[in-house]
Fold this sequence. Notes:
The complex is a heterodimer of chains A (329) and B (298). By secondary structure, chain A is mostly helical. Chain A has helices at 23-41, 45-71, 88-96, 98-129, 136-149, 153-162, 168-175, 190-200, 203-214, 218-226, 231-260, 263-268, 282-292, 296-324, and strands at 74-75, 83-84. The longest helix of chain A is centred in the middle third of the chain and has 32 residues, at 98-129. In chain B, α4 crosses α15, α5 (87-118) runs parallel beside α8 (160-167) and α12 (213-229) packs antiparallel against α15. The relative contact order of chain B is 0.15. With 298 residues, chain B is mainly alpha-helical. Chains A and B meet through α1, α2, α4, α5 and α6 of A and α2, α5, α6, α7 and α11 of B.
Amino acid sequence: MTTARSDAAVGEEPAAPAKPAGPADRRERERLRRRAARRRGGGWWPYVFLAPWFAGLFGLTIYPMLDSLYLSFTDFDLLTPARWIGARNYTHMFSDDPVFWDSVHATLLYVAVSVPLKLALALGVALLLNRPLKGIGVYRAAFYLPSLLGGAVAVAIVWRQVFGGDGLFNDFLGWFGIKGQDWISSPDTSIYTLILLAVWQFGTPMVIFLAGLKQLPKDVYEAAAIDGAGTLTRFFRITLPLLTPIVFFNLVLQIIDGFKTFTPAYVVSNGTGGPLDSTMLYSLYLYKKGFTDLQMGYASALAWVLFLVIAGFTAVNFVASRYWVHYDD
Amino acid sequence: MSAITPSASPLQKLRSLGSVRSLPGPRRILLHTLLIGVALVMLYPLLWMLSSSLKPDTEIFTHPGLIPNELHPRNYSEGWSGSGNSFSLYITNSLIVTIGAVIGNVISCSLAAYAFARFEFRGKKIWFGLMLGTLMLPLQATLIPQYTIFYNLTWINTFLPLIVPKFLATDAFFIFLMVQFIRSIPRELDQAAMMDGANPLQIYVRIILPLMKPALVTTTIFTFIWTYDDFLSQLVYLQQNARFTVPLGLTLFLDKTSGSSYGAMFAMSTLALAPTLICFLVFQKRLVEGLATTGMKG
């Protein structure tokens, strides 16, 4: 990602000097350059414009992060002052909190199954939509719409009814003579209804894939067509390699998103994470510990573990990307 | 992300139009059939919700078709007055929160973006990197200490914890979007204004803001939808029924689904999704483009 542009703006640096530059000239040039940079810097103006953001960064991000780190070593119920208990929150979490492990299990399963499915579907549909076809905008809209609704409570409510005992999904199975069950209240299947909801919302990565597909160089395909490469060959030898930066981008975002999922788990399980903790996604457990049980210290420890896990996954992703993501340059 | 430029240039659009050659007949029909099939699956749950909202409770689960035997609009009036408070209260509350958030995001994010896009200052790269870093930071990581801050300010059960952070540019996504946009505005305009004696604030108000209207519209739409749909922070900060927003009002139906309120629940769910749906239909193109530009979230 290109960030600050160290641009040499108009007329600040004298063009190539006519004479070979002596030390005095060089010093003079350096002085001029610095002055120009100061002028472009605008003195205290940038800080005026950034003042709200700075306030937010320090007051609502950095300070809370540090405070949260401190709280994670305390016993804190919000109403009485925090009491330092060392690493007890962490040792309890890892050694004797079965619900914590249930939530880790549910979340890892959720991310590991939903993200690949979602990305595969998004790429597949993007490939279909990348064809010259009338009414493509309508399809694109129809596929994107569910994702736009995102974590809306109304969607989660509908999902809960669709996969309930006498819901839509069982009617659908009935057409094929399959006898359904209550998918929501069975601990073996409830998490898969949430996964299906996530997969249903494949529109965001799809739109990003589509934007990427539009930028692929046409001449490579023409050359490949002349060489007689078939559809599959073209996909695996050209499209997929050229698209790896976008696959990577989508992968990182979707994994982070997956770890943060809260609303559907809350609504579908009525805030319990049940049945048998099968839908106890990590964020839901964190919420329950902090705001239902008022164990703010413990919840802070959970939050820090989540933060480290997400950062870890993202870092591993970036390192691994060296081996499979191809950039032009 | 680097390969994607903000809003396709007219030239690009022309080129992509030019490439629309129709496929040969049978393949085209096959493709359409496939796409219509997928589209139906995608939209079916939403249509089902709409149709259920118009069915009498007894029919919702016994009569699975999309067309109700008889229309039952009473669900809407029952749901509206239904859960604890009237739904008009929840909608008013949601409006206050979303409008406050939109104003906050538009002002604070554009200010920060202007600074990042147009000035050199000490540590700019580091600050910019931090800004992008906060994009990845999960809400959950700061939720508890933020809650204690707002608790100490006695802001719990008010809309302030949902609105004030937006005035402090906490949605880095939009800063990033706007930085990208401002970079596409020619610097010569700023410089000409500077020659005329305008200071940076005047340049921001008179030149940058009017020119970045498309980015501001994208920000407005997405902030509206995401704030309106947001559940976790509203659930945490609003605890009294009288302060509830639409998503919280909806969850009240879940507590009493044992009775015969399914129709009302679907009716209010439909209503709750209506603003997002309308936004989507009106701004469909811009939403999809705005997303493809930077491609985050959702």
